[in-house]
Write a structure and sequence with these properties.
222 residues, alpha/beta, Rossmann fold, disordered N terminus, binds cytidine-5'-monophosphate
């Protein structure tokens, strides 16, 4: 990347299902292109975890929206947000339109910051930042994703079988893809990156090349 290039407003949207590699790819792209990164899944995880701590029912959309409105950026570093239970709670609160509305401005402000940003999630290229200059939809075979997530969760000390993770992934894919508001979808202008057969290095390299091409198009069009 040339230093003299003007980076203002370059937004990278990275969407895809659980354990597709999109989080790692988003972090690598952020480092590569000098952009701040927001893992938007953490917002939904945080709402779910806060509700569970408060003994609220995850199906209670008013309570969920109230938790979402009060959420602050400093709450997103909590390791409790990385657990299997937090992922499941996140996908249950993420179906409420009121929760998605409450989290919209935070994400759009992040995307709109001077210089640009990288956001990863499920609806970045379709709803949060449809104007993003680079869009990727990162995916992998469900079995491959389950294996990856299982290794990750075991390292975190969780006790569970591969079959548990396969069931989790299937349930989340279905819920995230079938909800009425902002379902997980590949934006028509997003480049599909299937990481099933790739190492993380290969996937990050492919993502970088896709974004470099998008950035070159963006710079030449300004
Ligand atoms: O990406 P991660 O697995 O952390 O996301 C947790 C859950 O949060 C997803 O299963 C999905 O239900 C929800 N989510 C969402 N929209 C986003 C990011 C995450 O609905 N932009």
């Amino acid at each position: 990347m040339s230093d003299d290039a003007d980076r203002s407003g370059f937004v990278i949207a990275v969407d895809g299902p659980a354990a597709s590699g999109k989080g790692t790819i988003a972090l690598r792209l952020g480092a590569e292109f000098g952009l701040p990164v927001l893992d938007t899944g953490l917002l939904y995880r945080c709402v779910g975890v806060l509700m569970q701590k408060a003994g609220e029912n995850l199906e209670d959309h008013d309570a969920a929206a109230a938790a979402a409105i009060l959420l602050t950026a400093d709450q997103l570093d909590d390791p409790a947000l990385r657990t299997r239970a937090a992922g499941e709670a996140a996908s249950r609160v993420a179906v409420h339109p009121s929760v998605r509305d409450a989290l919209l401005e935070f994400q759009r402000t992040f995307a709109g910051q001077e210089g640009g940003a990288v956001l990863d999630g499920r609806d970045i290229g379709t709803v949060i930042a449809p104007q993003a200059q680079a869009k990727l939809f990162v995916t992998a075979e469900p079995g491959v994703r389950a294996q990856r997530r299982w290794s990750q969760l075991k390292l975190q000390g969780e006790r569970l079988t591969l079959d548990d993770v396969v069931a989790d992934i299937r349930r989340r894919d279905e819920r995230d893809g079938a909800r009425d508001v902002a379902p997980m979808r590949r934006a028509p202008d997003a480049v599909l990156l299937d990481t099933s057969e790739m190492t993380i290095e290969q996937a990050a390299d492919a993502a970088r090349r896709i974004v470099e091409a998008a950035r070159a198009r963006w710079l030449s069009s300004r």
